[in-house]
Amino acid sequence: MYTAGLVGITGYTGMELARALVSHPQINLTVATSRQEQGKKVADLYPFLRGHALGNLEISDADAKELAEKCDVVFLAIPHGVAMDTAAQILEAAENLKKSVKVIDLSADFRIKDIATYEQWYGVTHTQKKYVEESVYGLIEINAEAIKKARLVANPGCYPTASILGLYPALKNKIIKLDDIVIDAKSGTSGAGRKASVPTLFCEVQDNFRPYGLGKHRHTPEIEQELSLIAHNDITLSFNPHLLPIQRGILTTIYTKLTQDYAQEDIQKIYEDTWKDCPFIRVLPAGQFPETRYVRGSMFCDIAVTVDKRTQRLIITSAIDNLARGASLQALANANLTLGLPLKAGIDHVPLCP
Ligand SMILES: NC(=O)c1ccc[n+]([C@@H]2O[C@H](COP(=O)([O-])OP(=O)(O)OC[C@H]3O[C@@H](n4cnc5c(N)ncnc54)[C@H](OP(=O)(O)O)[C@@H]3O)[C@@H](O)[C@H]2O)c1
Protein backbone atom coordinates (compact mmCIF):
# COMPACT_ATOMS: atom_id res chain seq x y z
CA MET A 1 0.00 0.00 0.00
CA TYR A 2 1.23 3.53 -0.81
CA THR A 3 0.50 6.60 1.30
CA ALA A 4 -0.78 9.92 -0.03
CA GLY A 5 -0.98 13.50 1.17
CA LEU A 6 -3.56 15.99 -0.06
CA VAL A 7 -2.82 19.69 0.33
CA GLY A 8 -6.07 21.64 -0.03
CA ILE A 9 -8.73 19.06 0.87
CA THR A 10 -11.37 21.78 1.32
CA GLY A 11 -11.48 22.79 -2.35
CA TYR A 12 -13.55 21.15 -5.08
CA THR A 13 -10.63 19.23 -6.57
CA GLY A 14 -9.53 18.24 -3.05
CA MET A 15 -13.05 16.96 -2.38
CA GLU A 16 -13.03 14.95 -5.60
CA LEU A 17 -9.63 13.46 -4.77
CA ALA A 18 -10.83 12.46 -1.30
CA ARG A 19 -13.90 10.80 -2.85
CA ALA A 20 -11.79 8.87 -5.35
CA LEU A 21 -9.09 7.86 -2.85
CA VAL A 22 -11.69 6.13 -0.64
CA SER A 23 -11.93 3.35 -3.20
CA HIS A 24 -8.33 3.30 -4.47
CA PRO A 25 -7.02 -0.25 -3.96
CA GLN A 26 -3.36 0.71 -3.46
CA ILE A 27 -3.19 4.31 -2.20
CA ASN A 28 -4.28 5.41 1.29
CA LEU A 29 -4.87 9.06 2.09
CA THR A 30 -2.91 9.61 5.32
CA VAL A 31 -2.37 13.39 5.48
CA ALA A 32 -5.05 15.92 4.45
CA THR A 33 -4.43 19.62 4.93
CA SER A 34 -6.27 22.93 5.05
CA ARG A 35 -5.51 26.26 6.67
CA GLN A 36 -9.16 26.98 7.54
CA GLU A 37 -10.39 23.56 8.67
CA GLN A 38 -7.42 22.05 10.52
CA GLY A 39 -8.45 20.06 13.58
CA LYS A 40 -11.71 18.83 12.02
CA LYS A 41 -12.31 15.29 10.80
CA VAL A 42 -12.67 14.73 7.06
CA ALA A 43 -16.27 13.51 7.57
CA ASP A 44 -17.12 16.79 9.39
CA LEU A 45 -16.30 18.51 6.14
CA TYR A 46 -17.64 15.85 3.79
CA PRO A 47 -20.58 14.00 5.35
CA PHE A 48 -20.66 11.68 2.33
CA LEU A 49 -17.51 10.09 3.81
CA ARG A 50 -19.23 9.15 7.11
CA GLY A 51 -18.62 5.48 7.86
CA HIS A 52 -15.42 5.32 5.78
CA ALA A 53 -12.05 5.09 7.52
CA LEU A 54 -11.00 8.22 5.65
CA GLY A 55 -13.83 10.14 7.33
CA ASN A 56 -11.98 9.80 10.65
CA LEU A 57 -8.73 11.33 9.37
CA GLU A 58 -7.94 14.61 11.14
CA ILE A 59 -7.22 17.56 8.89
CA SER A 60 -3.91 19.29 9.64
CA ASP A 61 -2.05 22.36 8.44
CA ALA A 62 0.36 21.76 5.55
CA ASP A 63 3.87 20.91 6.71
CA ALA A 64 6.35 19.96 4.00
CA LYS A 65 8.55 17.84 6.26
CA GLU A 66 5.62 15.85 7.63
CA LEU A 67 4.22 15.32 4.13
CA ALA A 68 7.61 14.10 2.89
CA GLU A 69 8.03 11.79 5.89
CA LYS A 70 4.56 10.25 5.80
CA CYS A 71 3.69 10.16 2.10
CA ASP A 72 4.83 8.43 -1.08
CA VAL A 73 2.83 10.86 -3.22
CA VAL A 74 1.47 14.33 -2.47
CA PHE A 75 -1.34 16.03 -4.40
CA LEU A 76 -1.34 19.82 -4.43
CA ALA A 77 -4.95 21.00 -4.89
CA ILE A 78 -4.19 24.64 -4.10
CA PRO A 79 -4.02 27.85 -6.14
CA HIS A 80 -1.27 28.69 -8.60
CA GLY A 81 1.39 30.94 -7.14
CA VAL A 82 1.24 28.99 -3.86
CA ALA A 83 1.76 25.49 -5.22
CA MET A 84 5.23 26.21 -6.65
CA ASP A 85 6.87 26.81 -3.27
CA THR A 86 4.93 24.00 -1.57
CA ALA A 87 6.11 21.55 -4.25
CA ALA A 88 9.72 22.68 -3.89
CA GLN A 89 9.59 22.42 -0.08
CA ILE A 90 8.22 18.86 -0.22
CA LEU A 91 10.77 17.72 -2.82
CA GLU A 92 13.62 19.27 -0.83
CA ALA A 93 12.39 17.70 2.43
CA ALA A 94 12.24 14.33 0.64
CA GLU A 95 15.82 14.80 -0.62
CA ASN A 96 16.98 15.50 2.94
CA LEU A 97 15.25 12.33 4.07
CA LYS A 98 16.77 10.44 1.08
CA LYS A 99 13.26 9.31 0.27
CA SER A 100 11.31 9.09 -2.98
CA VAL A 101 8.22 11.31 -2.90
CA LYS A 102 6.16 12.11 -5.97
CA VAL A 103 4.36 15.44 -6.26
CA ILE A 104 1.31 15.86 -8.48
CA ASP A 105 0.48 19.56 -8.81
CA LEU A 106 -3.06 20.36 -9.94
CA SER A 107 -2.28 24.06 -10.32
CA ALA A 108 -0.80 25.77 -13.37
CA ASP A 109 2.57 26.49 -11.72
CA PHE A 110 4.62 23.87 -13.57
CA ARG A 111 2.62 23.53 -16.79
CA ILE A 112 4.09 26.36 -18.82
CA LYS A 113 7.73 25.86 -19.74
CA ASP A 114 8.45 29.44 -20.78
CA ILE A 115 8.75 31.40 -17.53
CA ALA A 116 8.09 34.79 -19.17
CA THR A 117 4.87 33.44 -20.70
CA TYR A 118 3.76 32.05 -17.33
CA GLU A 119 4.50 35.34 -15.57
CA GLN A 120 2.74 37.37 -18.27
CA TRP A 121 -0.49 35.32 -18.25
CA TYR A 122 -0.65 34.56 -14.50
CA GLY A 123 0.70 37.86 -13.19
CA VAL A 124 2.92 36.02 -10.70
CA THR A 125 6.71 35.86 -10.40
CA HIS A 126 7.91 32.27 -10.72
CA THR A 127 10.18 31.37 -7.79
CA GLN A 128 10.95 27.75 -8.70
CA LYS A 129 12.33 27.78 -12.23
CA LYS A 130 14.48 24.66 -11.91
CA TYR A 131 11.40 22.61 -11.04
CA VAL A 132 9.60 23.90 -14.13
CA GLU A 133 12.39 22.35 -16.20
CA GLU A 134 12.15 19.08 -14.31
CA SER A 135 8.35 18.73 -14.29
CA VAL A 136 6.46 16.56 -16.77
CA TYR A 137 3.14 17.60 -18.31
CA GLY A 138 0.74 14.95 -17.08
CA LEU A 139 -1.49 14.18 -20.04
CA ILE A 140 -1.46 10.41 -19.72
CA GLU A 141 -2.32 9.49 -23.31
CA ILE A 142 0.58 11.53 -24.66
CA ASN A 143 3.32 11.56 -21.99
CA ALA A 144 2.93 8.24 -20.14
CA GLU A 145 6.56 7.14 -20.47
CA ALA A 146 7.94 10.44 -19.13
CA ILE A 147 5.33 10.52 -16.35
CA LYS A 148 6.44 7.07 -15.14
CA LYS A 149 9.93 8.47 -14.46
CA ALA A 150 8.82 11.85 -13.05
CA ARG A 151 8.88 12.99 -9.43
CA LEU A 152 7.00 16.23 -10.23
CA VAL A 153 3.97 16.11 -12.52
CA ALA A 154 2.18 19.21 -13.79
CA ASN A 155 -1.40 17.98 -13.94
CA PRO A 156 -3.06 19.53 -17.02
CA GLY A 157 -5.77 22.17 -16.83
CA CYS A 158 -9.39 21.19 -17.41
CA TYR A 159 -10.02 23.14 -20.62
CA PRO A 160 -6.59 22.15 -22.00
CA THR A 161 -7.36 18.45 -21.39
CA ALA A 162 -10.61 18.58 -23.39
CA SER A 163 -9.04 20.75 -26.11
CA ILE A 164 -5.76 18.88 -26.59
CA LEU A 165 -7.36 15.43 -26.65
CA GLY A 166 -9.87 16.69 -29.22
CA LEU A 167 -7.21 18.16 -31.51
CA TYR A 168 -4.37 15.64 -31.08
CA PRO A 169 -5.34 13.18 -33.89
CA ALA A 170 -6.00 16.00 -36.37
CA LEU A 171 -2.62 17.64 -35.71
CA LYS A 172 -0.66 14.41 -35.54
CA ASN A 173 -2.06 13.41 -38.93
CA LYS A 174 -1.68 16.90 -40.42
CA ILE A 175 -5.28 17.08 -41.68
CA ILE A 176 -6.07 20.61 -40.46
CA LYS A 177 -4.59 24.05 -41.07
CA LEU A 178 -2.56 25.37 -38.15
CA ASP A 179 -3.60 29.02 -38.44
CA ASP A 180 -7.37 28.62 -38.24
CA ILE A 181 -8.32 26.88 -34.97
CA VAL A 182 -11.12 28.20 -32.76
CA ILE A 183 -11.92 26.45 -29.47
CA ASP A 184 -15.38 27.33 -28.22
CA ALA A 185 -15.50 25.89 -24.70
CA LYS A 186 -18.13 25.78 -21.97
CA SER A 187 -17.63 24.84 -18.33
CA GLY A 188 -19.74 24.26 -15.24
CA THR A 189 -19.17 26.61 -12.31
CA SER A 190 -17.07 24.21 -10.19
CA GLY A 191 -14.29 25.08 -12.66
CA ALA A 192 -13.89 28.37 -10.78
CA GLY A 193 -13.23 26.61 -7.47
CA ARG A 194 -15.06 26.80 -4.14
CA LYS A 195 -13.99 30.23 -2.97
CA ALA A 196 -16.79 32.81 -2.76
CA SER A 197 -17.09 35.18 -5.73
CA VAL A 198 -20.00 37.23 -7.08
CA PRO A 199 -19.87 35.99 -10.73
CA THR A 200 -20.35 32.39 -9.56
CA LEU A 201 -23.22 33.03 -7.12
CA PHE A 202 -26.36 30.97 -7.80
CA CYS A 203 -28.41 33.97 -8.96
CA GLU A 204 -25.67 35.08 -11.38
CA VAL A 205 -25.21 31.65 -12.95
CA GLN A 206 -28.52 29.81 -12.76
CA ASP A 207 -30.76 30.17 -15.86
CA ASN A 208 -27.97 32.11 -17.59
CA PHE A 209 -25.16 31.47 -20.09
CA ARG A 210 -22.31 33.84 -20.80
CA PRO A 211 -18.79 34.09 -22.24
CA TYR A 212 -15.86 35.24 -20.13
CA GLY A 213 -12.13 35.84 -20.59
CA LEU A 214 -12.42 35.99 -24.40
CA GLY A 215 -8.98 36.19 -25.97
CA LYS A 216 -7.21 36.29 -22.61
CA HIS A 217 -8.04 33.15 -20.63
CA ARG A 218 -5.00 31.74 -18.82
CA HIS A 219 -5.40 28.30 -20.36
CA THR A 220 -4.59 29.70 -23.82
CA PRO A 221 -0.76 29.50 -23.55
CA GLU A 222 -0.96 25.99 -22.08
CA ILE A 223 -3.09 24.76 -24.97
CA GLU A 224 -0.86 26.50 -27.52
CA GLN A 225 2.31 25.10 -25.95
CA GLU A 226 1.13 21.49 -26.01
CA LEU A 227 -0.46 21.66 -29.46
CA SER A 228 2.69 23.28 -30.88
CA LEU A 229 4.74 20.35 -29.56
CA ILE A 230 2.36 17.89 -31.21
CA ALA A 231 2.34 19.77 -34.53
CA HIS A 232 6.11 20.55 -34.46
CA ASN A 233 5.06 24.07 -35.37
CA ASP A 234 4.07 27.19 -33.47
CA ILE A 235 0.30 27.39 -33.09
CA THR A 236 -1.67 30.50 -32.19
CA LEU A 237 -5.37 29.92 -31.73
CA SER A 238 -8.58 31.42 -30.39
CA PHE A 239 -9.75 29.99 -27.08
CA ASN A 240 -13.16 31.23 -26.00
CA PRO A 241 -14.61 30.00 -22.70
CA HIS A 242 -18.22 30.25 -21.48
CA LEU A 243 -19.87 29.61 -18.13
CA LEU A 244 -22.66 27.03 -18.02
CA PRO A 245 -25.36 26.94 -15.33
CA ILE A 246 -24.33 23.41 -14.28
CA GLN A 247 -22.05 22.21 -11.49
CA ARG A 248 -19.60 20.05 -13.44
CA GLY A 249 -18.64 19.36 -16.99
CA ILE A 250 -16.84 20.87 -19.97
CA LEU A 251 -17.99 20.72 -23.55
CA THR A 252 -15.78 22.03 -26.33
CA THR A 253 -16.74 22.69 -29.93
CA ILE A 254 -13.55 23.15 -31.93
CA TYR A 255 -13.71 24.71 -35.39
CA THR A 256 -10.84 23.89 -37.75
CA LYS A 257 -10.17 24.09 -41.50
CA LEU A 258 -9.25 20.89 -43.36
CA THR A 259 -6.11 20.85 -45.51
CA GLN A 260 -7.90 18.90 -48.25
CA ASP A 261 -11.22 17.33 -49.19
CA TYR A 262 -11.53 14.54 -46.59
CA ALA A 263 -14.58 12.32 -46.23
CA GLN A 264 -16.27 11.82 -42.86
CA GLU A 265 -15.19 8.16 -42.88
CA ASP A 266 -11.49 9.10 -43.35
CA ILE A 267 -11.47 11.37 -40.31
CA GLN A 268 -13.56 8.98 -38.25
CA LYS A 269 -11.00 6.24 -38.91
CA ILE A 270 -8.06 8.53 -38.03
CA TYR A 271 -9.66 9.37 -34.69
CA GLU A 272 -10.68 5.79 -33.89
CA ASP A 273 -7.22 4.44 -34.82
CA THR A 274 -5.38 7.14 -32.83
CA TRP A 275 -7.28 6.52 -29.61
CA LYS A 276 -7.99 2.78 -29.94
CA ASP A 277 -5.60 1.71 -27.14
CA CYS A 278 -6.58 4.51 -24.76
CA PRO A 279 -9.14 3.23 -22.26
CA PHE A 280 -10.37 6.66 -21.16
CA ILE A 281 -11.08 8.13 -24.60
CA ARG A 282 -14.29 7.20 -26.37
CA VAL A 283 -14.59 8.24 -30.00
CA LEU A 284 -18.31 8.31 -30.72
CA PRO A 285 -19.83 6.88 -33.92
CA ALA A 286 -20.53 9.44 -36.66
CA GLY A 287 -23.71 11.37 -35.92
CA GLN A 288 -23.47 11.02 -32.13
CA PHE A 289 -22.18 13.87 -29.97
CA PRO A 290 -20.61 14.10 -26.51
CA GLU A 291 -22.74 15.21 -23.57
CA THR A 292 -21.43 16.36 -20.20
CA ARG A 293 -23.78 14.05 -18.28
CA TYR A 294 -22.32 10.91 -19.86
CA VAL A 295 -18.82 11.66 -18.55
CA ARG A 296 -19.85 13.02 -15.15
CA GLY A 297 -17.63 11.82 -12.29
CA SER A 298 -15.42 9.78 -14.65
CA MET A 299 -12.03 9.77 -16.38
CA PHE A 300 -13.65 9.59 -19.80
CA CYS A 301 -13.16 12.11 -22.55
CA ASP A 302 -15.85 11.61 -25.21
CA ILE A 303 -14.98 12.91 -28.67
CA ALA A 304 -16.90 13.26 -31.94
CA VAL A 305 -15.77 14.53 -35.32
CA THR A 306 -17.92 16.09 -38.01
CA VAL A 307 -16.78 16.96 -41.51
CA ASP A 308 -18.71 19.99 -42.75
CA LYS A 309 -18.28 19.50 -46.50
CA ARG A 310 -19.80 22.86 -47.42
CA THR A 311 -17.30 24.91 -45.42
CA GLN A 312 -14.38 22.43 -45.54
CA ARG A 313 -14.34 22.48 -41.77
CA LEU A 314 -13.62 19.71 -39.33
CA ILE A 315 -15.72 20.34 -36.24
CA ILE A 316 -14.49 18.46 -33.19
CA THR A 317 -16.53 18.15 -30.02
CA SER A 318 -15.24 16.80 -26.71
CA ALA A 319 -16.70 16.41 -23.24
CA ILE A 320 -15.05 15.81 -19.87
CA ASP A 321 -15.87 16.28 -16.20
CA ASN A 322 -13.66 19.23 -15.18
CA LEU A 323 -13.21 17.99 -11.60
CA ALA A 324 -12.61 14.34 -12.53
CA ARG A 325 -10.86 13.95 -15.90
CA GLY A 326 -9.94 17.64 -15.86
CA ALA A 327 -8.31 17.52 -12.42
CA SER A 328 -8.54 14.90 -9.67
CA LEU A 329 -8.93 11.56 -11.49
CA GLN A 330 -6.29 12.68 -13.96
CA ALA A 331 -4.05 13.45 -10.95
CA LEU A 332 -4.71 9.94 -9.62
CA ALA A 333 -3.86 8.46 -13.02
CA ASN A 334 -0.58 10.37 -12.88
CA ALA A 335 0.06 9.08 -9.34
CA ASN A 336 -0.57 5.53 -10.57
CA LEU A 337 2.00 5.95 -13.33
CA THR A 338 4.66 7.55 -11.13
CA LEU A 339 4.24 4.82 -8.47
CA GLY A 340 4.33 1.98 -11.01
CA LEU A 341 0.70 0.99 -10.39
CA PRO A 342 -1.78 -0.08 -13.09
CA LEU A 343 -3.04 3.01 -14.91
CA LYS A 344 -6.69 2.22 -14.17
CA ALA A 345 -6.27 1.54 -10.43
CA GLY A 346 -8.94 3.44 -8.52
CA ILE A 347 -10.06 5.61 -11.43
CA ASP A 348 -12.18 3.27 -13.50
CA HIS A 349 -15.49 4.85 -12.49
CA VAL A 350 -18.65 4.48 -14.51
CA PRO A 351 -20.07 7.97 -15.19
CA LEU A 352 -22.76 9.18 -12.77
CA CYS A 353 -25.79 9.27 -15.04
CA PRO A 354 -28.84 11.35 -14.15
N1 LIG B 1 -11.92 23.43 -10.25
C1 LIG B 1 -11.49 22.83 -11.36
O1 LIG B 1 -12.29 22.39 -12.20
C2 LIG B 1 -10.00 22.68 -11.59
C3 LIG B 1 -9.60 21.91 -12.68
C4 LIG B 1 -8.24 21.73 -12.93
C5 LIG B 1 -7.31 22.34 -12.10
N2 LIG B 1 -7.72 23.10 -11.06
C6 LIG B 1 -6.68 23.72 -10.20
O2 LIG B 1 -6.61 22.96 -8.99
C7 LIG B 1 -6.26 23.83 -7.91
C8 LIG B 1 -7.38 23.72 -6.86
O3 LIG B 1 -8.59 24.13 -7.47
P1 LIG B 1 -9.99 24.07 -6.74
O4 LIG B 1 -11.01 24.36 -7.77
O5 LIG B 1 -10.09 22.84 -5.93
O6 LIG B 1 -9.84 25.36 -5.78
P2 LIG B 1 -10.73 25.79 -4.55
O7 LIG B 1 -12.01 25.03 -4.55
O8 LIG B 1 -10.77 27.27 -4.56
O9 LIG B 1 -9.85 25.28 -3.31
C9 LIG B 1 -8.58 25.81 -3.06
C10 LIG B 1 -7.91 25.03 -1.93
O10 LIG B 1 -6.64 25.62 -1.70
C11 LIG B 1 -6.53 26.03 -0.34
N3 LIG B 1 -5.87 27.32 -0.37
C12 LIG B 1 -6.37 28.48 -0.86
N4 LIG B 1 -5.44 29.46 -0.76
C13 LIG B 1 -4.33 28.88 -0.24
C14 LIG B 1 -3.05 29.36 0.13
N5 LIG B 1 -2.71 30.65 -0.08
N6 LIG B 1 -2.17 28.50 0.67
C15 LIG B 1 -2.50 27.20 0.86
N7 LIG B 1 -3.72 26.69 0.56
C16 LIG B 1 -4.60 27.52 0.02
C17 LIG B 1 -7.95 26.08 0.20
O11 LIG B 1 -7.98 25.60 1.53
P3 LIG B 1 -7.85 26.48 2.84
O12 LIG B 1 -8.26 27.88 2.51
O13 LIG B 1 -8.76 25.82 3.82
O14 LIG B 1 -6.41 26.33 3.24
C18 LIG B 1 -8.67 25.04 -0.65
O15 LIG B 1 -8.56 23.76 -0.07
C19 LIG B 1 -6.13 25.23 -8.49
O16 LIG B 1 -4.79 25.51 -8.75
C20 LIG B 1 -6.95 25.14 -9.79
O17 LIG B 1 -6.53 26.05 -10.77
C21 LIG B 1 -9.05 23.28 -10.77
Descriptive notes:
It is globular, with a radius of gyration of 20 Å. It is built from twelve helices and 14 strands. The mean pLDDT is 97. It has two domains: 2-134, 3-Layer(aba) Sandwich (Rossmann fold), CATH 3.40.50; 159-322, Dihydrodipicolinate Reductase, domain 2. The chain starts with a strand and ends in a 15-residue tail after the last helix. With 354 residues, the protein is of the alpha/beta class. Helix 3 (64-70) crosses helix 4, helix 7 (140-149) packs parallel to helix 12 and helix 8 runs parallel beside helix 10 (219-231). The protein binds NADP nicotinamide-adenine-dinucleotide phosphate (NAP). NADP nicotinamide-adenine-dinucleotide phosphate (NAP) is lined by residues 8, 10-14, 34-37, 77-80, 82, 106-107, 157-158, 190-191, 193-195, 322-323, 326-327. NADP nicotinamide-adenine-dinucleotide phosphate is lined by residues 8, 10-14, 34-37, 77-80, 82, 106-107, 157-158, 190-191, 193-195, 322-323, 326-327.
